[in-house]
Write a structure and sequence with these properties.
380 residues; alpha/beta; Aspartate Aminotransferase, domain 2; Aspartate Aminotransferase, domain 1; 2 domains; 7-stranded mixed sheet; 3-stranded antiparallel sheet; 13 helices
């Protein structure tokens, strides 16, 4: 079978006419940077998320960096974030000469552990970056409560969870990324809402923050050649905006398809010895950017299972094999092996299977049978 870890090509062909028309229209107009296409997409996404401001930018990493730049932080200020995340979350903290303080995650949902979060707060703590990992929102109700009690800001990393929802204890339903002072996302092609190149966006309900974000993304200027603050050059190009506008109306359908694929994986793999399937909190809508399970016998067994699948051309991936706090680039912060045992155990156990909105049932069943065979036939 021609199984893909991520299938952007089939998705393109389903809406090819709309995509091609949108791109050709821009080429005919000669509009490549900014303009109507970008503004239209920002407005459409703001309406979808029910957020006041969406400011597009060049990629998800820039979105996180700009978010921190507008929050009034100073070198040495501490930012709480999970170590079990893609490195971009941590990278922007270090680039701004802030101090990342690494927080444990829950072993079932993989999201930030709010009890450990509380333990890690110090007088130097200024903010929290929760990561909605693999498409499942973190416990934002509790995180916002902790932030309010300690006068901390919250920047949500929603790069993997666009379209996911959280139901609060009062019954209110919110999109992930719209609850902190700022939310950030990525439109990398493999994302649930992916462009055909790089792209990102920043969300906020705050008018003042929105104005600052727009300025920073545009070299620190409101008026051309008049620079009121130090900024960067980070913008979503018009062609990517047009692609995203064509895809946004399909996002809920894409996410529903991912949930259906996850349900079939769960059905096929339930009660399989040696596996722990993905857990989902009762009050959230998971959007399964990744379908990530755990191989319970540790790193050697996980790696043997991966090699078995690789040999049979069944795509799979380890997100992430080394925790952020143990990466060579971040050793100056003084972390050692054993400091975050849950996180470190997850790096030895997790394995992600193919997941995308076009994944057919026969491929899922095929993958599951080979995974079961791998668990039986691999020995340590």
């Amino acid at each position: 079978m021609n199984i893909k870890l991520v299938d952007t090509i089939t998705q393109y062909h389903e809406i090819k006419e709309n995509i091609d028309s949108a791109i050709l229209n821009l080429l005919e107009k000669g509009q490549y940077i900014g303009g109507e296409a970008v503004k239209n997409f920002e407005n459409q996404l703001a309406e979808y998320l029910k957020v006041k401001h969406v400011i597009s930018c060049a990629n998800g990493t820039d979105a996180l960096q700009v978010a921190l730049m507008v929050m009034g932080v100073e070198p040495g200020d501490e930012i709480l974030t999970p170590s079990f995340t893609y490195i971009a979350t941590v990278e922007v903290i270090a680039l701004l000469r802030l101090k990342p303080v690494f927080v444990e995650v829950y072993p079932d949902t993989f999201n930030i552990d709010t009890e450990d979060l509380k333990r890690k707060i110090t007088p130097r703590t200024k903010g929290i970056i929760p990561v909605h990992l693999y498409g499942q929102p973190a416990d934002m109700e509790e995180i916002l409560k902790i932030a309010k009690e300690n006068n901390l800001f919250v920047v949500e990393d929603t790069a993997q969870a666009i379209g996911s929802e959280i139901t609060f204890s009062n019954g209110a339903v919110h999109k992930a990324g719209t609850l902190g002072e700022i939310g950030c996302t990525s439109f990398y092609p493999s994302k649930n809402l992916g462009a055909y190149g790089d792209g990102g966006a920043i969300f906020t309900q705050d008018d003042t923050l929105a104005e600052k974000i727009r300025m920073i993304c545009n070299h620190g200027q409101k008026k051309r050649y008049y620079h009121d603050s130090i900024g960067i050059n980070s913008r979503l190009d018009a062609i990517q905006a047009a692609v995203l506008s064509a895809k946004l109306p399909h996002l809920d359908r894409y996410n529903t398809s991912r949930n259906q694929a996850a349900d079939l994986y769960n059905e096929c793999l339930k009660d399989t010895e040696g596996l722990i399937l993905p857990a989902c909190a009762d009050n959230v809508q998971h959007v399964y950017h990744q379908y990530t399970l755990k191989i319970t016998e540790g790193r050697a067994k996980r790696d043997a299972v991966k090699a078995y699948l690789d040999a049979r051309n069944i795509p799979n991936m380890i997100y992430y094999p080394v925790a952020s706090h143990l990466q060579q680039a971040y050793q100056e912060y003084g972390y050692h092996e054993g400091d975050l045992p849950v996180t470190e155990q997850l790096t030895a156990e997790v394995l992600s299977l193919p997941m995308h909105s076009e994944l057919p049932e026969d491929q899922i069943r095929f993958i599951c049978e080979h995974l079961k065979n791998a668990l039986r036939e691999t020995s340590l």
